[in-house]
Amino acid sequence: MINGKSLLSALLMTLAPFTAPALAQLDVQIESEADRFLKEQQLQREREELQRQQPLLAEPEQEEENNFSDKICFTIDSVEVDGVEAIDKQLVNDLTQEVIGQCIGQKRIAKLLQAINALYMDRGFITTRAYLPEQNLSRGKLLIKVLEGRVEKVQLNESSLSDRTRLWAALPGTEVGSVLNMRHLEQAVDQLDAPPSVKSQIKLWPGEEVGTSLVEITTTEKNRFRANISTDNDGQENTGKQRLKFGLGMDNLLSLNETMNLNYIGSRDTNALIFQLSLPFRRFNFSFTRSYSEYLSILSEYSELFGQSDSTYMNLDYMLFRNTKHKITLKSGLSLRESIRYINDTELVPQKLTVASLGVEHRYIAEKSRWLSSLNYSRGLDTLDATTDPADLVDAAPHAQFSKLEANVHFSRPLGELAYLQSLLAAQYAFDSLYGSEQVHLGGLGTVRGFIGQPFSGDRGFYLRNDVSWPKAGKALSEWVPFIDVSLSSFIDLGYVKSRAENIYGRFEESLSGMGFSVNAYYGDSRIALTLATPLHASQQHIKDDYQLSFSVNLNF
């Protein structure tokens, strides 16, 4: 049994090598399980968004070259266009000015009508048409009428009270009698589909009046209330590599297209509990997350480090612009975090951070590739009871009032007929030294594979992930195993981090790279994944194994 004097001596001897900066660097190596979960969840959401974003309806193609002739033509002195309300009439006038003073015939007039129709379709007004009424062109005046297609009715499913509430919360700027804009309908379907259990389809039917349309939206629901159990070996060595997760989710409890999730993540010496609420509303998306994490790390024979963090995240996004190829979203957020650490029973100085962020996200669909890029600026504030940095704080010490930039770029495209490439570049540049919750973390299945349980972190850095999937090879394997779908992929990753302060390895920077392949087997909504990775490069002696085999089992109910 250790008496008080010997315990104090042991504690002082233990703390001797752990100065304040050293303790801070040890602490940042232990990334919160809640933080890891939220980051990986966000990246997964972005990958899925990139792949599923497509126009909801095939928009009308431009009319093919007709057999009209300009052999008989009329000199046009003026052009009048009636019925233009939904777009700037000057855009139409710019087109009509090209024919004034010209001798034009049927072919040239048809091209002018197509150009006016294209103006509308590019802006989402796909049921609007320009046409030529009966007239005498020999007088030198050309009259064009535009019939702007309008909404007669928008109906979701059977128009129950729940259906009407969900539609009201999802549909921006489309009322009975308004000009039908496909961009508004696409946004509505995105919001209706925000809950993972919902899939929507949209159809347009001719209305009772000329130029009107009935908009019919139907949804199918699967697993509105769901549960998830999973396990993997992607934990950290100092807190336990084997992890266990439980999750509960529910959608449309309030009929506002909302989603609520509750998740638990645990390993040998970590626990995390996360509550999430996502509430889309027309052009807006609001999300609220509350998380609690704790960990225990052994420092020596006589001492241990115990940490707790309590975090709140609030985000508000606004869809600024969209068409068939582009979607631009403005993003904002506010996070509150409190971290408490103990060495044995001695409490260290608590860390309280208030962080505001602003950013922009751009989705782009090219002919054969898809892009999703984002840029985000974060600033640590000295409000809402946040820790205030002293005036004489050294550069190497973590700052509560900090600034940093983050950028993500997702890219995907087919590689011929046999393979499909998905790449992700994630980078961060900090202008100050950061606490662990704000740093870049490398190692594990979510960043640079081949370094499970070996975390590296820094104030600045990046990682690049490249995955090549082989769908035909996976399909061939699936035919061998009944009721099982198999997917195969290979990958190569690399990453780099740098800090102003030395890490626990006595270095200011680290670089990693790894490669390997993975096999995923699906049975219904459940999945088993195996990943074999080998480190290619690591700073100094960080390569501990020639290869690493990781697994995860995910059961959904």
UniProtKB/TrEMBL annotation:
InterPro entries: Hemolysn_activator_HlyB_C, Polypept-transport_assoc_ShlB, POTRA, ShlB_POTRA, TPS, TPS_OM_transporter
MF annotations from Gene Ontology: protein transmembrane transporter activity
Protein name: Hemolysin activation/secretion protein
Main location: membrane
Residue ranges constituting the POTRA domain according to the UniProt record: 74-149
GO cellular component: cell outer membrane; type V protein secretion system complex
GO biological process terms held by the UniProt record: protein secretion by the type V secretion system
Keyword Calcium tagged: no
Entry's transmembrane regions: none
